[in-house]
Write the structure tokens for this entry.
Amino acid sequence: MKKLMSLVLAILVLALPVASFAVEYPVNSDKTITIWKLLDGSIAEGGYTTSMDTPGFKAWTEAAGIKVELQEFNDNDALRLAISAASTLPDVIQADKNLFTGGIMTMVADDLVIEITPEMLEANAPDYWAFVNNDTYMKEIVQLDGNMYGLAGHVFEPGSVFRYWRGFFYRGDLLAKVGKEVPTTAEEFYDVLVAFKNAGIKTPLVFQGSGDLAESMKNGDVTSPFGLVNAAEYHIDGVFHYGAYEAEYKEVLRFWKKLFTEGLISVDYMSMEGSVAQASICNGDAGAFYGNNSRLNTFKGALKEGEFFVPGPGLKTADGQNAMFSFADPMVSSSDFAFITPDCENPELVLNLYNFLFTEQGKLIRDFGVEGESYVIGDDGIPAYTELVTNNPNGYSLDGTARSWALINWPGIHGDYQLAARHPEKTQVAAYELWGSSQADTYRIVPGNTILEEYADEYATLWTDISLYINESRAKFINGELDLDADWDNYIQTLNKMGMERVYEMKQATVDAYNAAAGK
């Protein structure tokens, strides 16, 4: 009860007006801030191999007047290993808030982060604080102990449809060729893939990345027809569920096994590289793909005249309602949180650095880059990318160039003008709106409070093994190595032995605590 009251009081305090402070830029400090983060591989499509060389990073640090040294890692495993092995931590770990099992509170328990107080933000990051200090954002930033431990990753503008950036696309010309409409039900989805196969299309459905079949299930794109919200976390009227443990999950797996067995999805879906998937969908070896909206910027250049993409929704429920779930970034993206470590000697300088991205000048650099080179301000006062970005003379993609000249995957305001400019195709805007029409907000668990602190270690220990077993079993059920009827009960019993029922208890306690604190 004391912890819940602490959170309630903290939220009330955070909602109060803040004092008027300002940071003068450039700061012109002689100190250097060190940051460890993942490498955004998309900058390679803009001609760069490290963020420190990109025009956007240089423009930011020069305008802020703060020197920064980056160390970038290819994947989360490498970043976690470096953190665990470090005798001295960098000033900042910029990473997904769920980098460690158990989320932010695991990092707190392991003394990897320091608390960030409202007073620190008022004095050193006033522009950031003025933007996020409201219920829309704070419910995703404040932890259940009532404290903040990281600066938010990129945040969306209120009401932004651009949060919904992942789902199904179909080759519209190939749908027309086989006489089919965009599927909305499981039956239609199956029929479309069969029609593609019968028309000589080698692999009817491909995935942008090796983990995307699993992601499509976690995002609920194919689960609703079988009565399952998604294959990951969700709640029904405040009761916690994990889809891959629910009875309905069995029928979702049966559906995917059918698609796999009949050759309607790629046999190497767990290892297919993005470039192979792209080639398949563009040359007609595939008729549909699951992946990111922004990839259309890259794909469209490989299409011939008359070839085009159309978006498809998550599949409807059995009674014809919109999909119960869909992928969506939270209002505060879980990625790119900036955590100040205990080894940082100048936390105020770190706050100054990231605060700059919430100033008027910083927002333009963050979203558009360098004025006169990567963008111009139109007569209507709206910034727009130049042809350096939209039609790069070196053949670099729009998305890769924008990520290089600006700071798209860095903290800051993910502005709608920028997002619209990066998705010039009407098809892409239609996709955002279509994917955002699900019932996800009814079932989505508010992120940011992964687990109560007292359960963090226990949860991390249990979930590491459980999640691995779920992933391995998914693949085996789909490829037939495990039989859905003969082996299902053993799958559930094994999860129970591994502690899944205890995971439910800990997660339910966390959901209850959050809802109680939020007054729901």
The first strand starts at residue 32 and ends at 38. The two ends are 15 Å apart (CA to CA). The chain is about 40% helix and 10% strand.
